[in-house]
Fold each of these.
Amino acid sequence: MEHSKGTSFAAPKDMGEKEVKPPKWFAGYGDRLARTVVMYLAALVLALPLFVIIDPYIPEVVLPWWGGVRVDQVLTFAAVIGAFMVLVRRFQLVVYGALLIALVGLSVTSIIGNYTFGDLFTNYSQWLRSLQMTASQVPMASQRLDPFHDAEKLRALVNELDPAVRKAAILMATANFKEVKVAGDEVVLVRALSIFKEINSTWTYVSDPKGREYFAPTAESIELMAGDCDDHAVLMAALISAVGGEVRLVRTTGHVYPELLVGNDERLERAAYLIRKVLFVKEVGDAPLYHHTDSDGRHWINLDYTRNYPGGELMNERIIGILEP
């Protein structure tokens, strides 16, 4: 028996079989799912940088289960990505248009070989890491600062260099991080941070005599490794200055602490990387790093004894004076 071409073997409708149709709710499900996935990915790309920036400022809420769950991070990320989902949904045409243009452009550059999808992913990842590693800008309390109390006495102590101070500075500067390989212009920074580590790992706070202000000579502070905040600040500034670094003293309403000059934006980013990933890995952890920026665009990081790593969180007091060397 021969069959003619195009013969249908489906049973005729009059045999009682009915065509099965998907339910109405299922119609267009694939399109909606695809749109939702695209919106989520777009919101994720936009939300990650903002989350990395604001995360250090969110108070920690840790649950004791499963090794400690950071509830604050979960809720913050959910809120951030939810907000971006709303924005992406509201401006779908703009977002989809931008994504389409970017996709076409990236496809063209990938074919040419100038810039590929892998390059995009690598650069985006590096950008996120740089956001996390770069120190956080802390605004000065005011542009007009009061005269620095006892400025000349403290400056004289910082600049008084004798053989004992120089010897102590060299010993402390070379006591740590000997195996770390850095560029020639980063050696002074590493030496200064070694001094910071030596002082802050042994320093003991002792108040001045009641009703009197006492400024300890640097040699005395080296011997005792104890004193109040101005003694610590002077010691830190004197020893780091003795090996080529630059430290200034910052006076708040109830405190004095030293700040180390790092330099421009590029040097700040490099210093943040060294502190976080090489020199003080255990001490820093996921904590943010802080810095001040002066009117010339130079960055300074906190070396206070209240923190066990450079660039630690500053005390919540108004700055009233700055004494530079």
Amino acid sequence: MPDHITQPNQTTNYHAYLLRLWREEGGDWRVSLQSTRTGERFGFADLQTAVQFIAQTLRQGESQ
């Protein structure tokens, strides 16, 4: 029997993002997160800002 993951009915209880990291000319790293549910892409100048975005998203889900 294959293993599978079932997603909760409420979208605020499950978040999945595709994380992309790349280095710009000049050495600065850039980050993007793409929602696997909606396909929406979010761009960030650094990893810390991306993590802050995720934390904020989770806090918003808790308040709903």
Amino acid sequence: MKGKNRIPIWNTTLLVILVLMLSSLTAQAASFSKKALEPTVKVKGNKATIRWVKRSDLSGYKVFQCNELGKKRKLVKDTKSCKITFKNLQEGSTSYYVVRGYQEKDGKTTYTRYSKVVTVQVCRKSTLKKFLLTALKPVGSTMYVWGGGWDKADSGSGSDATRIGVSPKWKKFFQKQNSGYNYRNTRFQIHNGLDCSGYVGWCIYNILEVENGQPGYVMLAQNMSKNFASRGWGSYTAAGKVKDYQAGDIMSTSAGHVWIVVGKCSDGSVVILHSSPPGVQLAGTPTPGGKQNSQAVALARNYMQKYFPEWFEKFPDCAKGSSYLTDYSQMRWDLSGKVIMSDPENYRNKSANKILRNLFRSR
């Protein structure tokens, strides 16, 4: 019985050939993609490695040094490997790179798009003493300003927190204030002072960077201790699990405050550096048992009165509440010298009194 819909043999053969040809063309078209590579970078000490995923459609890869916008590209290496390592990088240096893959076929070279810019940032080495000396520079001459240290968009570091040295505007603004200063009236006057995260971000910038305008370290105060620990700078301890306090510890609370430990006293109270209304100053916590007139408060008061008399005359209060010993998470610096920080003066094992004495002799 004849089938009404039977396809002649020659038509079937032609159809198969067409399908095979289309499949071959599709395979050839899919054998190369201009999609950009997605490199990642890992920096450890003075060594940095940029890696990307190998692609079977590519013959090799070219790595270019460039500016932060990906322009002014200069070829660094043409390689078949999927990584490039830079050694003996200069402390405090920042460099930028893009990667591009290529395919060589039938005497023709075809390129992928350039990758996004990869930033290689090598931190400077520092010491606990240098960190605390840096943190002392705005003390007694810088008002607390909500948003101070942030950019206008309130999204991160502003120009004041990415500058080397203190801003001369801070002291000028302080000298115009009296004991009735109310930070609520100066909100977002960002160039006139620093808030808590602006202050700590400025301190970090000034120990790690060598020039103005590099990416900064200002962020929400509650994120600082955990964020800094995640960068490999030290260890993290959650709020409620903090057992002790040592020089240089960075303390953050979910309520939105951050401060720096100077040292602990024999009665368990802690001398701190922070920016809190009215401004940047030394202060002291109560004892763990709640005694308000603690050794730390007495030390902070003595040093503020002696070394910052103009400030102390306007703002003599150097005491902070018990929440400073209960509600904060902690980032403790790695002092091995392999990352950022070391402690040749052995501050970590000294009392607040001895640390302050040594700091103020060195100012």
